[in-house]
């Protein structure tokens, strides 16, 4: 079956994310767009994943629990977990590795933690868009050792991408790659290339959803499907 998959989205926890993009509204909007497998991947924090998991259940979506980790080289890497507890543990680990720089909401935006009703229950002080102290290879290996899907983000972007910041794609066992424009003009190691919406506001939800031929809507089927690069379809 053809399944609509979108593994790259932010919420109001990311300083660059719109304040009205609560985890629940992300799930509702994704459901309305027909997305069937949806990940929330805020910058270097997992704190909105609890509300997101409850919202996905209400919306009958397969929610996956992610972070977009910033490496010491300022490369963005998507790390996506099938279960909430593993993502929360990884989120605490990653937040601990951020430099002790406070967010200036006027400069960078708010970092809001919400419950499932959209009520703000906390604000994160530490700036979440800084680079962690982990290298690109360390992030990839650490997340793989925790059984996450590991997907270097927007590899064709001119900033915060593995190709722009490192100049090449190190030979590591990534789950897949994410790009914005296809085809990618680089050696992509025969890996599956996904597109993701990287939504920072409600109107961006679903803008780059992709479609995979899967046996069923499950994490296991997604993982198996990602091993076959030929079967991904992209939004026109
Ligand atoms: Zn990014
Ligand atoms: Zn992003």
Characterization of this structure:
Helices cover 25% and strands 20% of the residues. The strands form three sheets. Strands 7-4-3-2-1-10-11 form a seven-stranded mixed sheet, with helices on both faces. A two-stranded antiparallel ribbon has the order 5-6. A two-stranded parallel sheet has the order 8-9. Helix 1 runs parallel beside helix 2. A hairpin with a 5-residue loop joins strand 5 and strand 6. The chain has one domain: Metal-dependent hydrolases (TIM Barrel). It is α/β, with parallel strands linked by helices and 236 residues long. It has seven helices and eleven strands. The structure holds zinc ion (2 copies). The site of one zinc ion (ZN) has 5 residues, from loops.
TL;DR?
Helix content is about 25%, strand content about 20%.
Please give the share of residues in helix.
25-40%
- What ligands are attached or bound here? zinc ion
Please report the distance between the alpha carbons of the first and last residues: 19 Å
Lateral strand order in the biggest sheet: 7-4-3-2-1-10-11
């Amino acid at each position: 079956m053809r399944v609509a998959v979108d593994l790259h989205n932010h919420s109001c926890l990311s300083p660059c994310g719109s304040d009205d993009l609560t985890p629940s509204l992300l799930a509702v909007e994704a459901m309305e767009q027909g997305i069937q497998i949806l990940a929330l991947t805020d910058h270097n924090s997992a704190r909105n994943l609890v509300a997101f998991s409850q919202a996905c259940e209400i919306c009958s979506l397969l929610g996956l629990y992610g972070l977009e980790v910033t490496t010491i080289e300022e490369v963005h890497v998507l790390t996506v977990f099938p279960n909430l507890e593993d993502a929360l543990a990884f989120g605490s680990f990653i937040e601990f590795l951020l430099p002790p720089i406070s967010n200036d909401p006027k400069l960078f935006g708010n970092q809001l933690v919400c419950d499932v009703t959209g009520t703000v229950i906390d604000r994160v002080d530490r700036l979440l868009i800084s680079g962690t102290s982990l290298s690109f290879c360390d992030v990839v290996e650490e997340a793989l050792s925790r059984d996450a899907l590991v997907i270097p983000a927007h590899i064709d972007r001119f900033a915060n991408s593995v190709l722009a910041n490192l100049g090449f794609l190190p030979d590591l066992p990534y789950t897949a790659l994410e790009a914005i424009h296809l085809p990618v003009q680089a050696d992509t190691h025969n890996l599956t290339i996904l597109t993701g919406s990287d939504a920072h506001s409600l109107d961006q939800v679903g803008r780059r959803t992709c479609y995979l031929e899967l046996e069923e809507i499950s994490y296991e089927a997604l993982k198996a499907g990602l091993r076959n690069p030929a079967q991904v379809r992209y939004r026109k």
